[in-house]
Amino acid sequence: MSLWPPPRSSRHSGRRVRLPFVLGAAALALAAVVGGVTWALWPDEEQPLVTDGIPHSYAGSWSGEMAQYDEAGELVTDWVVRLKLDEGTDRGSADLLPLDCRGSIVLTERTDDFLVFEYAETYDPENRCIDESTLTLAQQVPGTLEAEWVGTSREGTVMTSTGTLK
């Protein structure tokens, strides 16, 4: 007679031990996918989307010269902007020439009198442009847009640019 118990078979125990781990990993993967999809579809509370989108009268390609002023009202520079606005969407694009900057704009407010967009820079190779700003467009005369662009420079100076786009 031995003081030690006889060895147990390990032939089937590996399968039983792995099953809870496999099921747990699958549940975690499923939760991550569902959570990611929910997060991607959930609207950003800081930047509410406007469900009506860009109206027909604002849609299209627009360009014009902008005059940029600092807080003291001193002219800083003149520049040209090209906007592309797609009807029914809440997004567009902006090229700031000759500053060589590009960005995306997202519609955040729409009234009968104006549209407000948040601008986020996507291209600035010379680090000259304001990264984030607010663009307000108003159509007072058919075929033109009055534009006001307001943002804060890296140095903390509030810059305001105004112009007419056609």
How would you sum up this structure in a few lines?
This protein is of the alpha+beta class and 166 residues long. The protein has 1 helix and 8 strands; from the N terminus they run αββββββββ.
What does this structure look like?
The structure is a single chain. The chain has two domains: 12-42; 60-165, Porin (Beta Barrel), CATH 2.40.160. It is 17% helix and 43% strand. It contains one helix and eight strands. It has one helix at residues 13-41; strands at residues 60-69, 75-85, 91-97, 101-110, 114-123, 132-138, 145-152, 158-165. It has an eight-stranded antiparallel beta barrel. Strand 1 and strand 2 (75-85) form a beta hairpin. Residues 37-41 have low confidence and may be disordered.
Which keywords apply here?
Porin; 8-stranded antiparallel beta barrel; 166 residues; 2 domains; alpha+beta; 17% helix
Q: State mean pLDDT (0 to 100 scale).
A: 82
The structure class reads alpha+beta
Number of domains: 2
Order of helices and strands: HEEEEEEEE
The count of DSSP E runs of length 2 or more, i.e. the number of strands, is 8
CATH class of the largest domain: Mainly Beta
**End-to-end C-alpha gap:** 101 Å
Based on the coordinates given, report the CATH architecture of the largest domain: Beta Barrel
Shape: elongated
Topology:
Blueprint: H1 13-41, E1 60-69, E2 75-85, E3 91-97, E4 101-110, E5 114-123, E6 132-138, E7 145-152, E8 158-165
Antiparallel strand pairs: 1-2, 1-8, 2-3, 3-4, 4-5, 5-6, 6-7, 7-8
